[in-house]
Amino acid sequence: MNTSAQFTLNGKPQRVTTDSSRTLLEVLREDLGLTGAKYGCGEGQCRACTVLLDGKPSPACQTTMDEVQGRTVETIEGLARGSQLHPVQEAFVKEGAMQCGYCVPGMILATVGLLRRVPRPTQAQIVEGLNGNLCRCCGYPNILKAVQRAAQSTKEAR
Q: How far, in Å, CA of 39 to CA of 25, rounded?
Protein backbone atom coordinates (compact mmCIF):
# COMPACT_ATOMS: atom_id res chain seq x y z
CA MET A 1 0.00 0.00 0.00
CA ASN A 2 1.43 3.37 -1.02
CA THR A 3 1.99 6.01 1.61
CA SER A 4 3.51 9.45 1.65
CA ALA A 5 6.30 9.45 4.21
CA GLN A 6 7.43 12.82 5.50
CA PHE A 7 10.69 12.96 7.40
CA THR A 8 13.85 15.02 7.77
CA LEU A 9 16.78 13.71 5.74
CA ASN A 10 20.21 15.17 6.39
CA GLY A 11 18.64 18.32 7.81
CA LYS A 12 16.12 18.89 5.01
CA PRO A 13 12.41 18.06 4.85
CA GLN A 14 11.74 15.07 2.61
CA ARG A 15 8.56 13.55 1.24
CA VAL A 16 8.53 10.17 -0.47
CA THR A 17 5.48 8.38 -1.86
CA THR A 18 6.14 4.66 -1.92
CA ASP A 19 4.94 1.33 -0.61
CA SER A 20 4.94 1.65 3.17
CA SER A 21 6.60 -1.75 3.60
CA ARG A 22 9.67 -0.83 1.54
CA THR A 23 12.83 -0.42 3.53
CA LEU A 24 14.55 2.87 4.15
CA LEU A 25 17.65 1.37 2.53
CA GLU A 26 15.78 0.71 -0.72
CA VAL A 27 14.32 4.21 -0.80
CA LEU A 28 17.64 5.91 0.01
CA ARG A 29 19.53 4.00 -2.67
CA GLU A 30 16.94 3.51 -5.41
CA ASP A 31 14.69 6.56 -5.12
CA LEU A 32 16.90 9.24 -3.59
CA GLY A 33 20.29 8.27 -5.07
CA LEU A 34 22.05 8.13 -1.69
CA THR A 35 24.25 5.08 -2.01
CA GLY A 36 26.44 5.52 1.09
CA ALA A 37 24.38 3.04 3.12
CA LYS A 38 25.35 -0.34 1.74
CA TYR A 39 23.29 -3.50 1.32
CA GLY A 40 25.10 -6.21 3.23
CA CYS A 41 23.17 -9.04 4.76
CA GLY A 42 19.63 -7.64 4.52
CA GLU A 43 18.98 -8.83 8.07
CA GLY A 44 20.44 -6.00 10.17
CA GLN A 45 23.31 -8.20 11.32
CA CYS A 46 26.28 -6.60 9.54
CA ARG A 47 25.31 -2.93 9.90
CA ALA A 48 26.74 -1.91 6.51
CA CYS A 49 23.44 -0.07 6.01
CA THR A 50 23.62 1.94 9.26
CA VAL A 51 21.98 5.36 9.32
CA LEU A 52 21.16 7.56 12.28
CA LEU A 53 17.44 7.47 13.01
CA ASP A 54 16.62 10.23 15.49
CA GLY A 55 20.34 10.20 16.33
CA LYS A 56 20.53 6.48 17.06
CA PRO A 57 22.44 4.04 14.81
CA SER A 58 19.87 1.88 13.04
CA PRO A 59 19.98 -0.69 10.23
CA ALA A 60 18.22 0.88 7.24
CA CYS A 61 17.58 -2.58 5.78
CA GLN A 62 15.27 -3.35 8.70
CA THR A 63 13.52 0.03 8.88
CA THR A 64 10.29 0.32 6.90
CA MET A 65 9.08 3.60 5.48
CA ASP A 66 6.17 3.45 7.95
CA GLU A 67 8.74 3.67 10.75
CA VAL A 68 10.43 6.74 9.22
CA GLN A 69 7.32 8.93 9.24
CA GLY A 70 7.99 12.18 11.14
CA ARG A 71 11.51 11.18 12.16
CA THR A 72 15.01 12.41 11.43
CA VAL A 73 17.37 10.38 9.24
CA GLU A 74 21.07 11.11 8.84
CA THR A 75 23.18 9.33 6.23
CA ILE A 76 26.89 9.41 5.52
CA GLU A 77 26.17 11.90 2.73
CA GLY A 78 24.87 14.39 5.30
CA LEU A 79 27.90 14.46 7.59
CA ALA A 80 30.41 16.58 5.67
CA ARG A 81 29.80 20.30 5.29
CA GLY A 82 30.81 21.05 1.73
CA SER A 83 34.44 20.01 1.40
CA GLN A 84 34.92 19.95 5.18
CA LEU A 85 34.81 16.37 6.44
CA HIS A 86 33.08 15.58 9.72
CA PRO A 87 35.69 15.00 12.48
CA VAL A 88 34.86 11.29 12.54
CA GLN A 89 35.34 11.00 8.77
CA GLU A 90 38.63 12.84 9.09
CA ALA A 91 39.78 10.52 11.88
CA PHE A 92 38.99 7.46 9.75
CA VAL A 93 41.06 8.89 6.91
CA LYS A 94 44.01 9.83 9.14
CA GLU A 95 44.08 6.40 10.81
CA GLY A 96 43.67 4.48 7.54
CA ALA A 97 40.58 2.87 9.06
CA MET A 98 39.41 1.30 5.85
CA GLN A 99 40.47 -1.28 3.38
CA CYS A 100 37.72 -2.11 0.93
CA GLY A 101 35.54 0.65 2.42
CA TYR A 102 32.25 -1.24 2.34
CA CYS A 103 31.69 -1.10 6.11
CA VAL A 104 33.06 2.41 6.60
CA PRO A 105 29.85 4.46 6.24
CA GLY A 106 28.13 2.28 8.84
CA MET A 107 31.17 2.37 11.13
CA ILE A 108 31.37 6.16 10.86
CA LEU A 109 27.67 6.66 11.61
CA ALA A 110 27.84 4.23 14.54
CA THR A 111 30.82 6.25 15.83
CA VAL A 112 28.97 9.56 15.42
CA GLY A 113 26.04 8.11 17.36
CA LEU A 114 28.36 6.81 20.08
CA LEU A 115 30.26 10.10 20.48
CA ARG A 116 27.02 12.05 20.71
CA ARG A 117 25.95 9.82 23.61
CA VAL A 118 29.38 9.31 25.19
CA PRO A 119 31.83 12.09 24.19
CA ARG A 120 34.79 10.46 25.95
CA PRO A 121 34.25 6.72 25.57
CA THR A 122 36.47 4.10 27.13
CA GLN A 123 37.91 1.32 24.98
CA ALA A 124 35.14 -0.98 26.25
CA GLN A 125 32.45 1.57 25.37
CA ILE A 126 33.91 1.93 21.87
CA VAL A 127 33.87 -1.83 21.36
CA GLU A 128 30.30 -2.00 22.66
CA GLY A 129 29.23 0.98 20.53
CA LEU A 130 30.53 -0.66 17.36
CA ASN A 131 29.35 -4.15 18.28
CA GLY A 132 27.46 -5.56 15.34
CA ASN A 133 29.23 -3.44 12.71
CA LEU A 134 31.19 -6.03 10.78
CA CYS A 135 34.38 -5.47 8.80
CA ARG A 136 35.21 -8.38 6.53
CA CYS A 137 38.73 -7.01 5.97
CA CYS A 138 39.35 -7.16 9.74
CA GLY A 139 40.38 -3.50 9.95
CA TYR A 140 39.26 -3.29 13.57
CA PRO A 141 42.55 -2.07 15.13
CA ASN A 142 42.63 1.04 12.89
CA ILE A 143 38.89 1.56 13.30
CA LEU A 144 39.32 1.61 17.08
CA LYS A 145 42.21 4.09 16.72
CA ALA A 146 40.03 6.27 14.49
CA VAL A 147 37.24 6.35 17.07
CA GLN A 148 39.75 7.29 19.77
CA ARG A 149 41.17 10.03 17.52
CA ALA A 150 37.69 11.35 16.77
CA ALA A 151 36.84 11.44 20.47
CA GLN A 152 40.08 13.32 21.17
CA SER A 153 39.55 15.83 18.34
CA THR A 154 35.97 16.41 19.45
CA LYS A 155 37.19 16.97 23.01
CA GLU A 156 39.84 19.46 21.81
CA ALA A 157 37.25 21.37 19.75
CA ARG A 158 35.24 22.16 22.90
A: 8
